[in-house]
């Protein structure tokens, strides 16, 4: 049997991580892997998480299984964080192994409910979106999104492509901090997208992996909340990896909004899918998140530290845009300051990306996506000079 298996394509980011680890050069810069790093290069454990873990160690009495859909308190706390009050009667939800698990379970749900539906994704999007969609055998299509020339949104192309979506198709939207481009829709553009999708009878599917990393916890949820209000059915896959800094705890949630009369059936299907894929979801990270969100002092400390993280990335963006303007003597990269979240796509060629790696020990994904959080005050000017040196 096993001899019938063929090699699978390697994940480009994982390959890049391995190359970076093996590079012996001092001063090498890793802008590939998508994790937040502080000025020392560490991905720290947040203060509130540390405190909650100590409390949990003292209070926890059992390691028995949680429910198939996770703990109701976690699901309710995450639903409230993302959507605010007023959705409890519509929201079925399930804890998942990270945001990727939520995406996978949502796509499984789509396959069960509407196997002939096409799932539309932005061009570009996070590569794992397309990988999982194709793995599950679902139909896939792309809609234009990014204008490489300006570093902004291709609004005309976006709306033109979404006008071709068929009734019942699913449109995958990045709730904030678009990965890989960093270019976000404005409130006006979100409204236009919602208008088109309403007219077409499409089902929005929001990937919210970076709430709190862009313009703030509430601001980053505004588009998702607008979508949730306007559409009878919405899928939302959310991750706690970034905003709580608990990457390895694999903590995520899938929320399925529908008619209140259908909530029990949808909830039962979410539990069923969990059972088929991994039975009971991991609970440690979910328990910490619940403790933080339910405790006013812990929640306030978490929000304060998350805001520090967000502002640090904004400072790095502004500094990089200014250094690139000086190094290249052009405003070509000013868009970096306007992007949000960890990522920006610089728009340089793959040959230039390779030259940055080989000559300057600067590692980024081949499409020129960089992780802003991989920089610090010392490395920002180094990166700018290296980009200028390769003709960027």
- What would you call the quaternary organization? single chain
Number of helices: 14
Largest sheet: 7 strands, mixed
SS-based class: alpha/beta
N- and C-termini, Cα separation = 49 Å
What number of structural domains do the residues give? 2
Corresponding CATH architecture of the largest domain: 3-Layer(aba) Sandwich
**What is the H-and-E element order?**
HEHHEHEHEEEHEHEHEEHHHHEHEEH
Strand sequence of the main sheet, in spatial order? 2-10-9-8-7-3-4
Shape type:
globular
Low-pLDDT residue spans: none
Summarize the structure.
This protein is α/β, with parallel strands linked by helices and 392 residues long.
Give me the secondary-structure topology.
Elements (H helix, E strand, L loop, with lengths): L11 H11 L6 E2 L16 H13 L12 H12 L7 E7 H16 L4 E6 L3 H9 L3 E6 L1 E2 L4 E2 L1 H8 L7 E5 L12 H14 L2 E6 L8 H14 L3 E6 L11 E7 L5 H15 L6 H11 L1 H33 L6 H4 L4 E3 L4 H11 L1 E2 L5 E3 L7 H11 L3
Parallel strand pairs: 1-12, 3-4, 3-7, 7-8, 8-9
Antiparallel strand pairs: 2-10, 5-6, 9-10, 11-13
Helix pairs in contact: 2-10, 2-11, 3-10, 4-5, 6-7, 7-8, 10-11, 11-14
Describe the protein in words:
By secondary structure, the protein is α/β, with parallel strands linked by helices. It folds into two domains: 9-46 and 299-389, Aspartate Aminotransferase, domain 1 (Alpha-Beta Complex), CATH 3.90.1150; 65-294, 3-Layer(aba) Sandwich (Aspartate Aminotransferase, domain 2). Helix content is 46%, strand content 15%. The chain has 14 helices and 13 strands. It has helices at residues 12-22, 47-59, 72-83, 98-113, 127-135, 155-162, 187-200, 217-230, 263-277, 284-294, 296-328, 335-338, 350-360, 379-389; strands spanning 29-30, 91-97, 118-123, 139-144, 146-147, 152-153, 170-174, 203-208, 234-239, 251-257, 343-345, 362-363, 369-371. It has a seven-stranded mixed beta sheet with strand order 2-10-9-8-7-3-4, with helices on both faces. Strand 8 (203-208), helix 8 and strand 9 form a beta-alpha-beta unit. Helix 6 (155-162) packs parallel to helix 7 (187-200) and helix 7 runs parallel beside helix 8 (217-230). 45% of the residues are buried. The model has no long low-confidence stretch (mean pLDDT 97).
């Amino acid at each position: 049997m096993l001899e019938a298996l063929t090699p699978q394509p390697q994940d480009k980011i994982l390959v890049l991580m391995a190359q970076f680890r093996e590079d012996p050069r001092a001063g090498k810069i890793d802008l590939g892997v998508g994790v937040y790093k502080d000025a020392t290069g560490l991905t720290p454990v947040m203060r509130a998480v540390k405190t909650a873990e100590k409390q949990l160690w003292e209070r926890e009495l059992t390691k028995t299984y949680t429910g198939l859909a996770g703990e109701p308190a976690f699901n309710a706390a995450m639903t409230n964080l993302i959507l605010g009050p007023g959705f409890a009667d519509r929201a079925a939800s399930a804890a998942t192994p990270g945001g990727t698990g939520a995406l996978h379970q949502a796509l499984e749900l789509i396959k069960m409910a509407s196997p002939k539906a096409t799932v539309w994704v932005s061009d570009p999007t996070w590569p794992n979106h397309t990988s999982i969609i194709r793995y599950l055998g679902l139909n896939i299509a792309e809609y234009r999104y990014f204008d490489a020339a300006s570093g902004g949104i291709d609004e005309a192309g976006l709306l033109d492509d979404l006008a071709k979506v068929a009734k019942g198709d699913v449109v995958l939207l990045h709730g904030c901090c678009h990965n890989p481009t960093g270019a976000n829709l404005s409130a006006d553009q979100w409204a236009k997208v919602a208008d088109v999708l309403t007219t077409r009878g499409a089902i929005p599917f929001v990937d919210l992996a970076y709430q709190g990393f862009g313009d703030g916890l509430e601001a980053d949820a505004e588009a998702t909340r607008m979508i949730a209000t306007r559409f009878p059915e919405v899928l939302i896959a959310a991750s706690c990896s970034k905003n709580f800094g608990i990457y390895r705890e694999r903590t995520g949630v899938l929320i399925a909004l529908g008619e209140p009369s259908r909530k029990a059936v949808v909830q039962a299907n979410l539990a069923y899918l969990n059972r088929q894929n991994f039975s009971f979801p991991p609970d440690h990270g979910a328990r910490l998140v619940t403790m933080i969100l339910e405790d006013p002092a812990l929640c306030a400390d978490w929000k304060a530290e998350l805001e520090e993280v967000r502002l640090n990335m904004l400072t790095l963006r502004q500094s990089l845009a200014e250094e690139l303007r000086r190094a290249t003597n052009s405003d070509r990269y000013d868009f970096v300051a306007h992007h949000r979240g960890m990522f920006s796509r610089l728009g340089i060629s793959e040959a230039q990306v390779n030259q940055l790696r080989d000559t300057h020990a600067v590692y980024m994904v081949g499409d020129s996506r960089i992780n802003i959080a991989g920089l610090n005050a010392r490395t920002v000017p180094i990166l700018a000079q290296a980009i200028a040196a390769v003709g960027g």
